[in-house]
Amino acid sequence: MKMLTLFSLLLMALASRSQELAIIPKPVHSQWGTGSFSLNRNTVLVLTSEEQGRSASFLNEYLQQCYGFRLKTTQAPQNGAITLSTTPSSASAREGRYVLEVTASGIRIEGDTYQGTFYGIQTLIQLLPTEVSGDLAIPVVSIEDYPRFGYRGLMLDVGRHFFSVDFIKRYLDFIALHKMNTFHWHLTDDQGWRIEIKKYPLLTQTGGCRNGTIIGHHPGTGNDNTPHCGYYTQDQVRDIVKYAADRFITVIPEIEMPGHSSAAIAAYPGLSCFPEEPTEIAKGVVWAGTSSGKQVQQSWGVYRDVYCPSDYTFGFLKDVLDEVMALFPSKYIHIGGDECPKDFWKKSPFCQSLIKARGLKDEHGLQSYFIQTMEKYINSKGRSIIGWDEILEGGLAPNATVMSWRGEEGGIDAARQNHDVVMTPGKYVYLDHPQTKKEDSLTIGGYLPLETVYNYEPIPSVLTPEEGKHVLGAQGNVWTEYMANPAKVEYMLFPRLSALSEVLWSEKETRNYDQFLQRLQTQYKRYQLWKVTFNRALN
Ligand code: TNX
Question: Is residue 276 packed enough to be buried (19+ CB in 10 Å), middle (13-18) or exposed (0-12)?
Answer without folding.
Answer: exposed
